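Example record for the data management plan.
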Amino acid sequence: HNDRGHAWTTQELRARGLGVPDSVCNFVLVRFPPQAGRDAPAADAFLKARGIIARRMDAYGLPEALRITIGLEDEMRAAVAALADFVGKS
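Corresponding structural encoding:
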């Protein structure tokens, strides 16, 4: 489950222009540009408004990133769709 969900989510987010480094874990790290309104804090607020909770990575020295845990297929589809809306690509 995790391997499939991780690979699919990584592929989908990269296709929308988001930075997702290679990893083998139960989450994806999503990097955002340092532009006001397009950065990680803005993405976090956008996701929360849609009921999607991500983890800010400021405390880990990665203020440009959000951590999104791999969940069920419908949850990951919702997260990818929300981020596609956020970046303006579907």
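Summary line stored alongside the record: Helices lie at 2-15, 40-49, 73-87.
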